[in-house]
Amino acid sequence: MALSIRDILILDYFDGKPVHHKIPPYKLKIYGQDANDRIGLLYENGWIRYSRPQETVSMLPDKALSDFLKRYGLSGEGSHAELTGRVISQIPESDYAHGVPKIYVLTKEGKAEIGHHMAYVLNVRENYGLTEGEIGESQNTLAQRGEPCTARDILYRAFQQKISLYIMAGEWSKLRNMYYTVANFYLRIKDNEEALPYLYLVFFMDMSGMGNKNNLVPYENLFPTQKGMILLMDEIRKDLHYSMDEVKTSFLSSIARMAPRLPFSYFSPQVMASMLLERLRGIDFNGARYIVQRNTPDPSAKSYHYVPYGRSEARPRSYHPPVVKPNFMAPPVLRMPTFTAPPPFKPGQSAPPPSREPVPEKKEEPVLRRKTEKKKGIFSKLKDLF
Asked: How far apart are CA 212 and CA 205, in angstroms?
């Protein structure tokens, strides 16, 4: 019974992984939320198995193999292959089975199933970003035409289909990234001669200034190709033994054959070729130097959208609808009266002076004092003393 594409991808992922390994959560979108449970069913159905100790003893380091051999009185000297062979041939498998890792290994049926759907597997392994429908449509088309139907042929046709869709939709930034993906596709199969033209196209799209949905970036915001990609092109150039003149010829030829028809480009291919040679020589892009040779965009163009950087006249006029007064009356507003201080009082000249009545004097109340009689005579004074 044939497996689904999702099960085939799960088999390829777990091949060579430890038996206790789990797919991380951020990858479950590719392999399915039940991928960690599906591997158990695939093991029970014979698509994948556990490794035998003899298959994984070579994964141990030389120090562990040497110490293990010395415990059994054997020589611990030699290369890694010699130590591994000595353990397998002279020590029973049951004695070292507990010390070696246990991993998943594809069975014969599992390997055959992956080999029949290698295009899907390579798409996930190398992160090409194609969907299962795009790969399936490419495979069916090639089979109906009787053309070669290898995994590389299927992926290449799927790339070309996606490139055509991006050109029709005006998704120029996505098209630029797809050119870089195709360049990596050829670099992985060691075909530098086919990879270099797609790197040229990446440079062409960067210097054109076109973005997704036919939006044109201002010249001040033009982002040149990264230095790492320039170094990659220079490395390929040296590998192909291209001189600078041959690079210029190859660039112009590739742009004429493969470049899409853009609604606008800041520079012509000839100017871009001069820029590329400067970048390959280590000279950074200088926007002020090429400002005279650039094409001037038109803000009123219909084929692309352009808004000049920092220019208010290019902004669309905003529409302000007329203000409609409501039919109901507004609630009354409480207003406090302002306070004014009265003028100071001034008496008139004809007014009689104010009368002052005399204040009656208070009579002091008599204080009762005990009247003391004056005593006369010496005998009276002596009496008082005693």
From this structure: 11
